Structure formats: structure tokens, C-alpha cells
Amino acid sequence: MVNEEKLRIMVNLARYEQEPLHTELKEAGYYRIDYIRSHLLVTLWSYSVAYVLVLFLVALYHFEYLLSKFRLPEIGSLAAGVLAIYLLLLLGCAFFTVIIYSAKYHRIQNKRRAYLAELKKMELFYEQSREVNGE
Amino acid sequence: MTHLLVMRERLIRFYQDHARIVNALFRFLISFVTFFSINQLVGYNPVLNSWYVVVAFSVVNTVLPMSVLIFLAAAYTVFHVYYVSVSLALVILLVFLIAYLVYLRFLPEHGYVILAVPVLYGLHLQYLVPILLGLIGAPVAVIPMSCGVVCYYALKCITTVIGTATEESMVLFNQAFQMIFTNQEMYLAIAVFAIVMVTVNMICSQEFHYVYETAITAGVIVNILLILLLSFPFNVEVHVLYLLASSVFSGLLAWLIQFFQVVLNYSAVEYLQFEDDEYYYYVKAVPKMNIAVGEKRVKRFNAHLLGGSRFGVQTPENVGNDRSNMRSESSEQEEKNQDNREI
After folding, report:
1. Chain B nearest C-alpha distance from A25 (Å)
2. Nearest Cα to B29, choosing from B54, B49, B52, B58?
């Protein structure tokens, strides 16, 4: 016979074990610093590639100007400017990534706690049923 | 209203009974409309432009996750432009890649908003986007909505540039970019959509009766007024009749979607007050409007006399069958009576 209480716990557990909650629960097992650091690396890499692509588009747009008017000292100053903007962008990204992923880590920890509570309920349920069966 | 509520209940019940088929059909429809809109906008490649390719892509999408649709739509657009200009296709590819790396990688669910804007523009329902996002989304949805508007106008500029170009060169890329950055209509759309969305969202967060209806009406009015007012400084030509019709129709559609999502019965609002150790609670409970759908039952009188003939027309064979049926029924009844007596 179907046990309603057991079914309810199992449905809750199954909900936690589906995507995207499953991935979040896996990530909730990391230490806070590791979690933030891994996401920081991915974000910085993504923004670096995007910055290079934007630079490529800008260079393509000003292609004729770059070919005709540019000399070595001007290229140096331009490269310094580009680098400075890149570093500023990375700093901004790092700042926001740390804030956003700290909040997210806190949120997924709460979910993990709720998931563990459901697991505990399930374990208790099995213990009680074993006692009833006299095992 | 009652008819609408009954229809809503029936539709919900139908969806609950046939959820898998309806979901697949819905996916197919969304994919079909997406590819169809892209074909309308940048349909250069004759192979991709044909009906059977659109249907094939849509059928494939019914079994794939919805996130694949965004990737396929982007690839579809790039291949269309690639047919007429390699340089512009490269630029579009880079722009899509940048959008993915900077934004969609972190908030993939917002990709649907970016995709929905050009698609709804193609269906002339662009004013539905800010109203609907204001109703169901968060204020942060302004970013993907603006990205969607830029995508639509970028594709429109590219089609204009390709239409006037005589040969394929990097000059096309410069022309397209200049046209996009100086497009006043795009800036007007971004500004108006953002204000409408925030207005609707702010009204929805208030607490008064018929808040959703008020928000939709306000959204439609603000949309019409802002476009009319800002069209002068932005120097944009506006078709007033089209604007009015499209805005009102978008408002009605938004109301219909909201109606199917949740209907509240404001005539039965309850105000509750209770307390615990730390707080005193003032609760306003608005019940959802539900209506019992009546089930049709056809009761046949003297059904056994009608037999197999339709509309009760008696044929000689049926008459014979009916008599034998009547005899067998009466004998069964007698047997039952005898059993009862024995008991």
C-alpha cells in the first residue's frame, strides 16, 4: 500500500534532485571561498574574452584610421589606455562577482539545509518502519 | 466573465489531462513562430527560408530543451546573413558571442526575453513586451529587454544596408554600425519600454483592488503618451492609428495572460489580524476566483426501446431485436425478484 507520508517526503527529495537545484546542491558542498573563487575565475575569463572581441570590433570599425594615422608612440599610449580600461573592468567584475556569489552561496546553503532535513525525515521514517516490522 | 472563467477551468483541466502533448505543441508553436519571424526579418538564404526547413527545425525543437532554441535562432540568423555578406555575418556572430559571455552565461533565463522582443516585433505585438514583463518579471528584466530591442533594430539596419549595397566589403560593416548607433527609433523604443515596464511593475507591487487591471491600463496609456510626446524630440515618424490599435491589443493580450495566470475575487476579500510572541500581523487575504464546470450528461429515456437504430427509427430487424431484448430483460428481472425472495 502507498504510504502518503513517505510519498510526500520522496516527492520533496525528488524536487531537490532535479536540475537546476541538483547542481546548486552539489555546489553547496564547497567551502565558501572555493565557491566564490571558482565563479570569479569563470567570470573574469568570460569578460576577458568578451573584451578582446569588443576590441576587435572597434578596431574593425576604425580600421582605415588605424592604418593611416597611427604611429608607434600613439600605439603605446593607446595600448596603455586599453589595458587600464581592461584592469578597471576586471576590478568592477571581481567586485560584483564576489557580492553576487556570496549572496547566492548563502541562498544555496539554506536550500541544502532544507534538503538535508528532508533526508533526515526519510531516514527517521525508515527507522520507524524497521522498528514496526521488528527488525 | 462567467463564460471566460468556465473556459479557463476547462482549459486548465484539458492541460492537466494532456500536459505532455500540449507542452510539445506549445514548443513547436514557439519554435515555428521564432523561425518564421527570423525568415521575415532576414530571410536571405533560400534553403532556410523554405517552409519545410522551418517545420523541420520546429519539430526538432519539440524534443530538445527550450534553451537550445536560443542557440538555434542565433545560428539561423547568422547563416541567413552569411548568404549575402560574410563580414556582416562575422560581426553578428561576434555580437551574439559577446552578449552570451557578458550576460547570458550568468542569467540564461533572460535569453528568452532577448529572443521574444524581435519575434514579437515581427508579429507587430512589440508593446506587449514591457507590459507583460512589468506584470510577471523583475525590474532587472529591463536589461534583456533593451538588448532585444537593440538586436531587432540591428538586424533591421543590416537588412537596409544589404538592400542598398552593390558589393561585399568591410564598408558594409561600417555603414551598418553607423546606422545602428544613429537610429533614433531604437533609442525611443528603449526609453519608452523601460519606463512602461517600471511603471507597470511599480503599480503591481502596490496593494489595492484590481491592481493588475490598473497596471495594464496605466502601461497602455503611458506607452501611447510617451511615444507620441517623445517622437518630436527623437524626430521619429509615428503612425497614430497603428500605435493606438497595437497598444490596446497588446493590453488586452496582457490582461488575458494575467487572467489565465491568476484571477482574484475582490468581492470576498478578508482582513485578518493575529499575533505571536514577536509580531502583530495584519493580513489581507484575496481568494482566487474558481468556478465549478458543469459536466454534460445525456440521459436517455426509453433507451432500450430505441435499440440500435439512430433517432429511434424502427426497422423490421430492430423491432425483432428490441422485442428479444425486452424479453431477456424481463426474464432477468424475474430472476432477480426470485433471488430476493429467497434471501
Report:
1. 18
2. B58
DSSP conformational letter for B94: H
Distance of CA A93 to the CA centre of its chain: 13
Give every CB contact of residue A18 below 8 A, 6+ residues apart in sequence: none
| Partners of residue A54 in chain B, C-beta under 8 Å | 98
Minimal-distance CA residue of chain A relative to B172: A61
Chain segment B252-307, per-residue pLDDT in tens: 999 888 887 766 666 666 666 666 666 776 766 676 766 666 666 677 776 666 55
Using a CB–CB cutoff of 8 Å, tell me whether A63 touches chain B.
yes
Residues 25-44 of A with CB under 8 A from B: 43
B280 in contact with chain A, both atoms CB, cutoff 8 A: no
Taking the C-alpha atoms of residue A49 and residue A30, their distance in angstroms, rounded to an integer, is: 27
Answering whether pTM is above 0.90, one says no
Q: Cβ contact (<8 Å) for A50 and B174? A: no
Is 0.90 exceeded by the ipTM?
no
Q: How many CB pairs under 8 A join A and B?
A: 28
Residues of B in contact with A53 (CB under 8 A): 94, 97-98, 101
**Model confidence pLDDT, tens digit, residues B18-68:** 778 888 898 899 999 999 888 888 888 888 888 888 899 889 888 887 778
pLDDT at A73 > cutoff 60: yes
pLDDT reported for residue B15? 78
A53–B173: do the CB atoms touch at under 8 Å? no
Residue B53: Cβ-neighbour burial (10 angstroms; 0-12, 13-18, 19+): middle
Number of H helices, E strands in chain A: 5, 0
Note the pLDDT tens digit of each residue in A98-135.
998 899 888 888 888 888 888 888 888 888 888 877 76
How many residues are there in chain A? Answer: 135
The answer to whether B256 faces chain A, any CB pair under 8 Å, is no
